[in-house]
Amino acid sequence: MKSHFKILIIGAGSAGISVASRLLRQSSSFKHDIALIDPAMNHFYQPLWTLVGGGAAKKEASKRDMKSVIPFGAHHIQQAVVEFDPDNNEVRVDDGQTVSYDYLVVAPGIEINWDGIKGLKETLGKNGVCSNYSYEHVDYTWETIRNFKGGKAVFTHPNSPVKCGGAPQKIMYLAEDAFNLHGVRENTEVTLCSANPGIFDVEEYKRALEKVIDRKRIKTNFRTNLTEVRGDKKEAVFENLDTGEVFTTSFDMMHVTPPMKAPSFLADSPLASEEGWVDVHKHTLQHAKYDNVFGLGDASNLPTSKTGAAIRKQAPVVANNIISHLKGAPMEASYDGYSSCPIVTGYRSLILAEFDYYKVPTESMPFNQAKERQSMYHLKKDFLPIIYWNGMLKGVM
After folding, report:
1. FAD/NAD(P)-binding domain spans which residues (predicted)?
2. Strands 98-106, 111-112: pairing kind
3. What is the pTM of this model?
């Protein structure tokens, strides 16, 4: 294996592979001079897990061998990063090897902190406690929903950034639909306990989702954060983030969205902001201190939602600006904060939220996307996976 690459990319997720593919398409000079460092053997299309948890898809469809998605002309170093040394243009991996670079792209994603909630790891996958944020356990979400006989169904959103901020509520809407289909809805109390101050940040979609919540008779407790799960007792402990009050509630099933954080090897590095994320300019995606370092995706400190749709717009900016920087030309590619969240509101309905840094809708369809539509549900379920595997990862969309 080479020990020096023109372009070194940390993370072979959506962001890393998209950037590698774009660079290779734009210049033959990068061929065999790009490496992606990632310890994973498999690559996952995680947006599908919401539908898996709702019984509308199979989790196997979300999984592919990593070697099948690494673009031709790029190397895969199957190691974990343990240290950044940007002053010397080097990265050290866990087998002790040092890899140097001309340009570094930092896109390791976000780390799920299962230990951030006391008792969660011990009870996940049993006692009615489920989560769509684990490939191993996502099937248990559907098992729990389809076997639910009534009682208290609780859904949580943590006091931290998360992958796809809408995902914690999507599974709740699917579950509520399933309870109706299975004849147990009238015996069920559905509650969302969210650390957020409201159901959504963008006003137009917030109003639409509030109508969904009212129609579905879902109780909401905002500014409440899950701190402990007592699975054997079927009890959950929450903290009110405004008053500091701690309270305990019972549940018959609970879908937990775990807290998430920047990977520790990044948070403790010279590349990190005070909050632990890779510190980049919000338009050029170039590092605030190191000119030959760029960052994107869930590990960045960009003030927008952490979604695959955001990455789809960020990847071409990184690729184009690296090429411009290499040529000594001005970096003219700019990211406007675009993000998108296809919010499933039932088995045949979806609100397609699209917005920018300023929380202004930036819709791509010729109709009101704040309205629930069956066509948009099929877009998410049937077409977005195809676009992901055959377009985005190949650097053509």
Report:
1. 5-303
2. unpaired
3. 0.97
Retrieve residue 36's tokens: 């992606």
Strand partners, 144: none
| Positions marked active-site | 164, 341
pLDDT values of the chain reduced to their tens digit, one per residue, 397 residues: 789 999 999 999 999 999 999 999 999 999 999 999 999 999 999 999 999 999 999 999 999 999 999 999 999 999 999 999 999 999 999 999 999 999 999 999 999 999 999 999 999 999 999 999 999 999 999 999 999 999 999 999 999 999 999 999 999 999 999 999 999 999 999 999 999 999 999 999 999 999 999 999 999 999 999 999 999 999 999 999 999 999 999 999 999 999 999 999 999 999 999 999 999 999 999 999 999 999 999 999 999 999 999 999 999 999 999 999 999 999 999 999 999 999 999 999 999 999 999 999 999 999 999 999 999 999 999 999 999 999 999 999 8
Domains of the chain from N-terminus onward? 4-110+262-336 (3.50.50.60), 114-259 (3.50.50.60)
